[in-house]
Design brief:
4 copies of one chain form a homotetramer.
Chain A: H1 3-20, H2 33-39, H3 41-67, H4 73-86, H5 90-102, H6 106-132, H7 144-154, H8 156-167, H9 172-187
Chain lengths: ~200, ~200, ~200, ~200
């Protein structure tokens, strides 16, 4: 399969997952609306974090497939499983918003969220590691050294998110702060092109 | 990143956000259906306004990216944040419909709606202003003077919507009338091609 | 704007509207599931009709834009309003399913459904009539005579659906039967290529 | 109609159906969240199975349309009906999750699920059988013998799923195990390229 077909399908899943996030913000009763809208802040926060997170993963996915010229069955399978966790994100997002709203079990909710991101990061690493062991799939411009360097940068994602998962049980806000910082780092404009996620 | 990739992803978000609007119109009980359907007029009105608004922003987004040939990391980041507010629109749409239906807090709902549009308009202006300061990103056919003129037209959106936000507290219907007029103006067929939004 | 951009965006709206239809079929309680599943037949019927209707309109939309080479602002505006009613279809579909299920107000529900299709058909006719009066927008291969002939075939849609709207008040099932027949006719394979809708 | 148009529309339906699956996993109350999240395992299982199933059908759909160069009206009609059952899958998925959760009527739910997959498999077979009887639609590289061989492999899907439908009444878990095994087989990387579904 050509990579542009796979990319188009993946883009569709990214675009739909990112746009479905809004369905988790329920319309409050119109009586006392101003106050009700303010109390929805956990929903807005969770929406904004997930939108930026999915946006960063999308940018990263493209960067990776700019370096990959061919897709074989194994990479196709890995990518499908990768998308399965991306399309899953609206669920931990809604769970996190609900926990922040009610004040209960915020650690569990933050751990579910960062755990899902950890799995996504692991798939990114596994996909790249598979592709870099099969140079016939890679773009000719990628030397083995460059592939290794890219692979090391991709590791920041799963390790950072795994740390956030553990820290969620210390304090959910430390965990949330960590993935905000990680994504700010991933998205921060720099010359080299991409950040790992 | 090439602009057509960014445009395809953005188009996906636009198309999904515009089509999700219908999910906010809930099926009324079948008993006394004719009357129930008529009483849903605020939902139809909010649906129609948001559909046309998102349609106008989409047309405008294309016009802008016809003049932009390359996208750097900063523009990519700005566009992602821009999309975050476009995908957010189904929420203020539903809040507005609910407020018009119940008769409560219509000013707050209209202000939330036009406030969201103001933020969208600000991002359009910031994106264009960034692009026009980096001529290497622009299409060769755009002279500095033309870029400035386009930038001035893009200002109509955020200023018009900011005015609608303030007027919402005078009378929500004046605010609604203002963004209907603004969008009629943006979409009105004319020779020059696009209207700012 | 090039037509392929407009077609891609329209395709997105068609694909999303057609896939959202399933959200209207609610999961019944698992106790006594077999029976509950059978009683959902109005939902399945409404789903199948709307899926085929949107599919037929999509095929037709493509046929029309194969004959149109350029899009001006007025056609863009007409197409956006056209899409507004297509994206609206999940609502009358759900209303029809609910009315068939409860047995109340089936005529009103069938009239709402066929009324929406009538409006869609009117937009198809207006778009084609506009394009055929502007030969600079049309493909060179379309002679004025051919354009007129196509226009006459496009009239079957709005007239057929308008008749279905009126007949809904005689008997909702006659109305439903009529738009099933109309769509079978539109989709029926034949040499000439397209059926009007 | 060119196949790439049909493929792009079909891809849209696949991408949306696969991403809508997450909407069926409802956010549990935040009190006692850890336990509640664990009890949602039937929803996670149903989500994962359907994601992989739709992914496998998508890969398969592409493989088929790589061998088909032209689409006529009949194939277009068959493909639309095929998509109707793919877009239907979120419903049996949710019914299955609900039945596994409540413990009631698991056989009925598993039969509805595998029955839907059987219908999808029948459409795949019918589409290929139609195409292989019209060599003018096929890619020149496909000899009649190759077409027959592919057709035989496509039969594994409907027969396997029909068996799973019958076995659902013996034990729902045997049925579920069967379609997990079938999809593992379809997706398993091998040299020949595709597995039938």
């Amino acid at each position: 399969m050509e990579t542009n077909r796979l990319e188009a399908f993946s883009d569709g899943v990214f675009a739909i997952a990112i746009t479905l996030l809004i369905l988790d913000i329920k319309v409050p009763p119109a009586a006392n609306l101003g106050n009700e809208l303010l109390q929805l802040w956990p929903s807005y926060l969770a929406y904004a974090i997930s939108f930026v997170v999915i946006g960063a993963i999308w940018i990263n996915h493209h960067a990776m497939f700019d370096w990959i010229d061919c897709v074989d069955q194994k990479l196709l399978l890995l990518n499908t499983l990768h998308l399965m966790f991306i399309a899953f994100l609206p669920f931990p997002t809604a769970v996190l918003a609900e926990a922040l709203h009610s004040g209960f079990n915020q650690s569990t909710a933050a751990a579910l969220y960062s755990g899902t991101l950890t799995v996504i990061g692991v798939f990114v690493t596994v996909m790249w590691s598979y592709a870099s062991k099969h140079p016939e799939l890679l773009n000719k411009s990628i030397t083995p050294d460059r592939a290794k360097m890219i692979g090391r940068r991709f590791l920041i994602g799963p390790f950072g998110y795994a740390l956030a998962t553990i820290l969620a049980f210390v304090d959910p806000w430390i965990s949330i702060a960590l993935f905000v910082v990680l994504n700010a780092y991933f998205l921060w404009p720099r010359n080299q092109g991409i950040g790992p996620a």
